[in-house]
Amino acid sequence: MTNQVFYIEPKDFDESHIYIEKPINNETKFLRIYYINDKNKECDLYVKLPENLTYGIKQYYKFGSKRSKIDGYQIVYNENFDTLNFFDSLIAVCYSNIKTWKKEKLISKRYK
Fold first, then answer.
1. 0.85 exceeded by the pTM?
2. Could you tell me if 46 and 5 are in contact, meaning their C-beta atoms sit under 8 angstroms apart?
């Protein structure tokens, strides 16, 4: 069975709509993350990330070098704060759930 798909942009993300399926045996290598829609259904979440605005290319040098030999280049661009906030929120929700599951695992071992 496939789930409905829910498309959002980072600015529309609401962490209260996230549901993370508890892994079997508290193994946290992979997490199944759903987004709950307005009809209270579990949906696969797809986030449309914005394009970055590129401002230019900058040379970089090895630390402590005399800038005689270019070690590489980096692209300098404007960060999108909605996108950063989205990832920070999603990571925080996942971390909170994992922390809770680990506590449950420790408690259940203690009382066996």
1. no
2. yes
